[in-house]
Amino acid sequence: MITRKDLLRVSKPVVLIAEELSPATVDALGPDFEIRHCDGANRAELLPALAQGVDAVLIRSATKMDSEAIAAAKGLKVIARAGVGLDNVDIPAATAAGVMVVNAPTSNIVSAAELAIALLLASARHVSPAHAALRGGKWARSKYTGAELFEKKLGIIGFGRIGQLVAQRMQAFGMSVLAYDPYLQPARAAQLGVDLVSLDQLLADSDFITIHLPKTKETANLINAEALKKVKPTVRIINAARGGVLDEAALYDAIKEGRVAGAGLDVFATEPCTDSPLFTLDQVVATPHLGASTDEAQERAGIAVAVSVRKALSGELVPDAVNVKGGEIHEEIRPSLPLVEKLAQVATGLADELPVSIEVVVRGEVSVHDCSILAISALKGALLATGAEDITYVNAPNLAQERGLTSSVLTESESPEYRSMIEVKAAFSNGTHIRVDGTLMGIKKTEKIIAIDKFDLDLPPTDYLLFLRYADRPGVVGHVGNALGKAGINIASMQVARDSAGGRALMAITVDSSIPKEMVELVAKETGAELVRTVSLHS
Questions:
Q1: What average pLDDT does range 59-86 have in this prediction?
Q2: Residue 7 has pLDDT above 50, yes or no
Q3: Which of 9, 94, 141, 491 has the maximal Cβ count within 10 Å?
C-alpha cells in the first residue's frame, strides 16, 4: 500500500522554464525537479501553466511576472530571472505573496563591459559608417579619420563592477581614467589607479565618456543638455548601461551642432527603438541592447539562477535574492538584526558620510551563537543611511565592497551592565570614529540605544532622531524646543548626557516627523552646537 508519506517522498518540485535558456540551466538544476516549459511571452499560455502549480519559474526579459501572474501561480516560491534587470517582475507583489525573487547580477558584467569598449572603439574609428560605405562600393579612407585612445582621458560615470572592469581594460590601452561616483571611497579609487573627480570636472576633462549607472530618479537624464555644454567638442560618449540616463534629444543636438564628436549606444529611453533621429547620424554607432547577449553571459545567468532555485527550494541562503534575507539565523540573533542596522544608520548619519569600516562587538549571553550575519546587517544600515535604495542582506556586501566599506564581528562573553549588548564602531576616512551601543530589553526585546561614544543614553531608535553635540550651558534645551515648536515638529522624548558640568554634552531627541534641512541649520545657528544631525531610520 502506498501511503501519503510515500507520495510526498517521491514527488518532485516543479520548475517552469518560461523562456529559452541555456541547456546548462537544466543540467545545473539536476534530476531533483520536474521540468515544464511554456511560452512566457504568451499570457494565454503562461497563466494556465502557472495555475497548474509550480514551485519556481525561470524567465528572461519577455515574461512579465506581474501581480496577475503571481496571483495565478499556485504554490510559487521562487521567481528566477536569468539576467540582471528585474523590470518585468513585480517585486512588491512577489514579496507580499511570500515569493522569493532572484536574478544573476554578475552574469553579464564582463559582456556588458566588453560591449561598452567595443562601442568606444567603433566610435573612435568610425567603424560603422566606414563599413556601410565600403559595402556600398565607396573606398572612403580620408573621410573616416579617427582618434587614438593612447594617452587620452576616459571618464567613467558610475564606478561599480562594470565601470571598474572597463577601467582595468582601458588602462591597458594607455588611457588615464577619471571616475565619478558619489559612493566610491577615495581609497578604493586610488587602489584602482583612477582619479575620483566631480561630474563637472569629468565632463570638462574627458576625451571619452562611458556611462555605467542604473536609471533612478536621481540619474534620469543626468547627462542632459546642460551637461553636454561642458564637454570637449572632440568627446565621444558611450552608453551601454540604461536608457534614459543620457538625454537622447540633447545628444542629437550636440552632435549636429559639432559640440560632441560621436556616440556609441546600446540602450535607449524607450525600447525597442528603431527610429531614433540618432540613427541618421554617421557619428553614432548603435546596437539593440546587446550588453548581455553573449553565449557565455547567457550560460552563466542560467547556471546562476538554477543554483539559486536549488538553494531556495531547500531552504538555504540565496546569494542573489533581492527581496528576502534568507539563511539560517539563530532565533536569539534574529532580533539583533534590525537593531544593528539602526545602530549603523545612526553612526553613519552622525558622521554624514559612509564609513570605511564597521566593527560589531557582541557582548554577553547572545555572543555564544553565530553572530556573523550581523556584519551584513551593519553594512545594510550604513548604506541605507547614505540614501542608497533597494538594499538587502544579500546585495549589501557587494555594494559595500564597491564603495570601500568593510565590516567584521567580534564576540565577548562579558557584558558588565546588560545581559547582552552590541557595540557598532564605525571608522571614517578622516581618521575619526563613532561608537553607538544598543541592547534589547525585557521579554519584548525592546530596542534601545544605550550610548553614543562616551555619552550614556536610554533612547528608543524611532523613525526620526535629532542629535546635538555642544558645550554644556544653560538655554540650549529651550532654543531647540522653541525652534522645533515653531516649525510644528512635535518632540516625543529628549535626553541630555554630558561628560561633566559645563563640559561637552550630547542631546538626543525623538520627534514625530522628519526635520527639514533648513530647521537643522536654524538649530545649529541658534544653539552654536558643534554638531547638529538629523537621522531618519528606515529599512
A1: 91
A2: no
A3: 94
First-to-final CA distance of the chain: 52
Question: What is the Cα–Cα distance from 503 to 499, expressed in whole angstroms?
Answer: 6
Question: Which pLDDT tens digit goes with each residue over 212-240?
Answer: 998 888 899 999 999 999 999 999 999 99
User: How far is 400 from 313, CA to CA, in rounded Å?
Assistant: 28
Give me the domains of the chain, ranges plus CATH numbers: 12-106+296-313 (3.40.50.720), 109-286 (3.40.50.720), 331-461 (3.30.1330.90), 463-539 (3.30.70.260)
| Mean per-residue pLDDT, 245-271 | 96
Rounded CA Rg of the chain: 27
Return the pLDDT at 254: 98
Cα atoms in the 13 Å half-sphere on the side-chain side of 98: 6
Amino acid at 287: T
The arithmetic mean of pLDDT across residues 335-340, rounded, is 91
Instruction: State the amino acid at position 48 in one-letter form.
Output: P
**Contact of 33 with 54, CB cutoff 8 Å:** no
Catalytic residues, which ones? 242, 271, 289
Measured CA to CA, the distance from residue 100 to residue 78 in angstroms comes to 5
pLDDT for position 228: 98
> Strand order in 100-102's β-sheet?
34-37, 14-17, 56-59, 78-81, 100-102
Q: What is the DSSP letter of 443?
A: T
The DSSP code for 434 is E
The set of cell numbers assigned to 196 is 575620483
Please give the Cα distance from 406 to 362 (Å, whole number). Answer: 17
What is the number of residues in the chain?
539
At 410 the three-state DSSP class reads: strand
User: d(Cα 109, Cα 177) in Å, to the nearest integer?
Assistant: 19
How many CB atoms neighbour CB 459 within 10 A? 24
